[in-house]
Amino acid sequence: MTHTATSSSTTHRGSGEPLLSVRDLSVTFGKGRRAFTAVDQVSFDVRPGQTVGLVGESGCGKSVTSLAIMGLLPDRGNTVTGEVVFDGQDLLKLSQDKLRERRGSELAMIFQDPLSSLNPVVPLGVQVGEVLQAHKGMKAGPASRQAAELLDRVGIPDPTRRLKEYPHQLSGGMRQRALIAMALACEPRLLIADEPTTALDVTIQAQILALLRELVTESGTALIMITHDLGVVAGLCDQVNVLYGGKVVERAERHDLFTRPRHPYTGGLLASIPRLTEERGRRLNPVPGSVADNIPWEGGCAFAPRCASEVGACRTTTPELEPDREGLGPDRLLRCHHPLEENPLDEIRTSDAERRDGTQEDRA
């Protein structure tokens, strides 16, 4: 019953024309032999009221993708190509002045580390109020009152007093909430959250995710959630893009991804999650190797050196991102020569059950 309700809600929120269309976005750092492609022809859409996840290990290109969308990469030392069409206008073609007008008012971002994102020598109220003064033309007094209301909205107690405090006087959870308040100040149509719960304890994580979920549901804001935590994906995202080596290797609706992962990398991420049902002392199943073990996409599949399902074509032919041959839906895309046939979680569950049965027989 729960899945049915979620699916219908997802369909309703994700319907209509995309607010943001990213097409063949590539980001290359350096030039010549030292050039490194951090994002490699990434494409996806985000519709109003939809939450789209970008998922993968550190170094897969998630954060660089978000910075390219927001126009926050440094002017020198990188090359950005492709299209980032927001409400019919390509953001990559806008001047910095035009982009700055939209950034903060229509586009907003919550960064991973709130302590380094906030100015340590400026009171919190001034920082939140500046956003309102810059983009809404408010005077200092009304901006301060509005800032207090924003802090109260995101759950910061005694917001009027907190306006006079500095970032170091707040807890990590409060600092992250303050960043969210700044991002929400001008009621943006698109919000990008770059691992907003990474440094927070479990209780605060749940509160932050509930706040973001409420924002999307009530205001119809489009949300891009960048994370390596599949638990966050399970509780928040409608559609999921799994990135590896700068490319999307699998795209699926949330429930479909967890029910039947098709790319070996996706299966490895799911299998590496600790479960409450596991026996104490059982070893986790991490993805072998590291992102440094990649091979260039031009020569095959970048994940091949770490893949247990590798076949000959994986080292010679670059797989294309195309509809899954199993016919699992029009929105299900896969980049793999030898996809998974079974959910690795099923094998783990069976193994756990057999181990428990064997332990019970030994005790008997």
Automatic annotation (TrEMBL):
Domain ABC transporter positions: 22-270
Gene3D superfamilies (alphabetical): P-loop containing nucleotide triphosphate hydrolases
CDD domains: ABC_NikE_OppD_transporters
A Pfam short name: oligo_HPY
MF annotations from Gene Ontology: ATP binding; ATP hydrolysis activity
Subcellular locations according to the entry: Cell membrane
Basic and acidic residues biased stretches: 322-364
One Gene Ontology biological process: peptide transport
Recorded topology in the membrane: Peripheral membrane protein
PANTHER family, A to Z: DIPEPTIDE TRANSPORT ATP-BINDING PROTEIN DPPD, OLIGOPEPTIDE TRANSPORT ATP-BINDING PROTEIN APPD
Protein name in the entry: Oligopeptide transport system permease protein OppB
Protein family membership: Belongs to the ABC transporter superfamily.
Region (Disordered): 317-364
Lineage: Bacteria, Bacillati, Actinomycetota, Actinomycetes, Micrococcales
Keywords, sorted A to Z: ATP-binding, Cell membrane, Membrane, Nucleotide-binding, Transport
Lineage: superkingdom: Bacteria
Main location: membrane
NCBIfam families noted in UniProt: oligo_HPY
GO CC annotations, alphabetized: plasma membrane
Species in which this protein is naturally found: Serinicoccus hydrothermalis
Cross-referenced InterPro entries: AAA+_ATPase, ABC_Ni/Peptide_Import, ABC_transporter-like_ATP-bd, ABC_transporter-like_CS, Oligopep_ABC_C, P-loop_NTPase
